[in-house]
Automatic annotation (TrEMBL):
<protein>
    <recommendedName>
        <fullName>WW domain-containing protein</fullName>
    </recommendedName>
</protein>
<dbReference type="InterPro" id="IPR001202">
    <property type="entry name" value="WW_dom"/>
</dbReference>
<dbReference type="InterPro" id="IPR036020">
    <property type="entry name" value="WW_dom_sf"/>
</dbReference>
<feature type="domain" description="WW">
    <location>
        <begin position="8"/>
        <end position="41"/>
    </location>
</feature>
Amino acid sequence: MGDDIDWLDLPGRWTYGVCGDGRIFFIDDDTKSTSWVHPGTGYSIQSGHFSCAGLPRGWEVDTTLHGGLYFIK
């Protein structure tokens, strides 16, 4: 998916959620269904953030382009 597409630009009554592993899913509030693909673009989205065991509550970890880890609160 191109970086110029705003994945928060959702049609109708769609919202989104984020799993603990960083995967973003989309929720159709009208039909009460979910999807891994963006309802407007047809592409799945990966935030890159993920939580892992041992991190304090509310902390996530991500990686730089060079593979280094950094932490997010």
